[in-house]
Amino acid sequence: MKNEKRAVIFDLDGTLSDSIHSIKYCADQAAAAFGYGPFSVEQYKYFVGDGAANLIKRVLAAGGDTELSHFEEAFALYREIFRENCMYQVRPYDGIRELLAALKERGAKIAVLSNKPHAETVNVIEALFGKGYFDVIQGQKDNVPIKPSPEGVFQILNRLGLTAADILYLGDTATDMKTGKGAGAFTVGALWGFRDRKELEEGGADAVIGHPLELLELL
C-alpha cells in the first residue's frame, strides 16, 4: 500500500454511521422529561462529539438549565433510553460499505474509536456491518479518557501491533482531528458528517475528503 498505511481508525457517529436522528430521538425524550426541547437536527450536530455526558449538558444548557441542575437525572434517563434505541434510523453513509470492502481487499486493518458508550458502539457496529467485521471496536470506557485524548488510539494501535505512522485516522469533527494529531497519525476530515471544512482544517486535518472512497487515494 502506498505510504505503507496498514490500518484505518474510524470515528463512528458522523463518519461511519448517520446516527444524528438516533441521538436526537433519545436526547429529546430525556430533555422532555424536564420540560426542555425538542431541539433541531442542526443543533444536535453541535451538541454531539464529546461523549454522552457532554451531549446532555449541552442539551440542558440549550433548554435553559445553565446550572445543569437536572444533569444526573437527565443523563441516567438518556442512557436508559439510548440502550433501547441506539439503532433508531441509523444507517451507514453512502460509500462506507464500499470503502470498508476495498480496505479489506487491500489487507488493511479497520478499527473504530468512538466517544459513544462502549456497549452501544459495539451494538451499532455489529448491527450495521456484522459481528467480527472490524478488527477492533472501542467505545467510551470508564478507565480511558474520551477523545480528544489520543489514549484510545494508542490502545487500538497496541492491539493491532502497529504505530501511528502505520495508520490513517478518519473523523468528522475538530475533536477527531485533535485526537488523530495527538496520536501522531495522518488525520483525515470527513465532510459528509456533522461539521464543516473550516472546523476540520482548524482542528488540524492533514486532508479533507467529500466522499468515503476518496480515502483510498490517501493510502
Task: Outline the structure in words.
There is one protein chain. By secondary structure, the chain is of the alpha/beta class. The protein is built from nine helices and eight strands. It has a six-stranded parallel sheet with strand order 5-4-1-6-7-8, sandwiched between helices. Strands 2-3 form a two-stranded antiparallel ribbon. Helix 1 crosses helix 4 and helix 3 (about 50-65) crosses helix 4 (about 70-85). The model has no long low-confidence stretch (mean pLDDT about 95).
Average residue-wise pLDDT: 96
SSE run: EEHHHHEHEHEHEHEHE
Low-confidence stretches: none
Work out the helicity level: 40-55%
* Binned strand content: 15-25%
End-to-end span in angstroms?
6 Å
Tally of helical runs: 9
Biggest sheet architecture: 6 strands, parallel
- Largest sheet, spatial ordering of strands: 5-4-1-6-7-8
State the total count of DSSP E strands.
Answer: 8
Which structural class should the secondary elements be placed in? Answer: alpha/beta
- Overall shape: it is globular
Rg for CA atoms: 17 Å
Entry keywords:
9 helices, alpha/beta, 219 residues, two-stranded antiparallel ribbon, six-stranded parallel β-sheet
